[in-house]
Amino acid sequence: MKRFSISLLTAALVLMFSVSAMAAEPCNAAKRKVDSFVYVIDQSGSMMMSMGKTLKINIAKAAVAKVIAATPELGYAGGAYAFAPIAKLADVAPFKKDVLAKAVASVNSNQEAFGRFTPMGQNLADLNPVFNGMPRKAALILVTDGESNMGIDPVEEAKLLYAANPGLVIHIISLADNKVGQATLDAIKALNKESVLYKAADLASSAELADKFAQDVFYDCGSAIVLRSVNFALNSAVINDESAVILNEVAKMIKDGSNKINVDGHTCSLGTEEYNQKLSERRAASVKAYLVKKGVASDRLITRGFGETRPKYDNSTDQGRRMNRRVELTPAK
Q1: CB neighbourhood size of 304 (10 A)
Q2: How many CA atoms lie within 13 Å of 109's alpha carbon, on the beta-carbon side?
Q3: 102-124: average pLDDT
């Protein structure tokens, strides 16, 4: 019997019914990939310079805030430090979104940009006691532009950290804006096949990418089916050609099973409660009908409509409303 596959993280937990594909909120049945993590945020002089019209340090803080918001509280220990100079922002302790978000926001964005060297390699070496004491498996999220102009080579120090800390993986949120910094970060990423590298500006501007980063680093969706890029027109429950391609793949995966599946429709807050309730039911029914047409047994699919009553995102923003227009497929209990 085929089971729900984690590989469907390419197609993930939430069907987004919006004009453009959006990200999934941490899914039902989420399971943590790590036992602990720490953000290490570069606050050197080069991070006080602009990337476009925004200071790099502010882009970094916004990116980390987005990822923290996308990370479910699953019992990991989480903390944050800054470097150049080293500063403890939050001890590695049971992860609470609001606590860690406040700690990261406290990084001073008004520090001097010039005349401050960046001993990134040495600072990573100095923080090794923190990394060494973290429960394994552990993630170190390095938030930096890759600039290092003093002391130990950060790539060589990363190699030493791996040797001294089995079960640690270094991930990168990049603010690199020149070839030297980018080469440094690429070299650190290449040291471990599990390592991921995302651009901070992309994370800061995209809830979808922030969610993907969180899933890559912190958790997976267990046995939930996750679908991305399934688009419905506003106020519509009609499946378009692009959505059909993804649903075809889902049908192939689940049609030979026997377990029951909830097909839950949701809406944003636009419109009346009565209208949204009916719209959510139509969306769930539309997905069920399509899957049945593709060979999934009708009695395995349980449709439910929740209208606007279970938002996962902020309905006061366009992006939040788009993300709340969704259908979720999860194992029925």
Answers
A1: 15
A2: 13
A3: 88
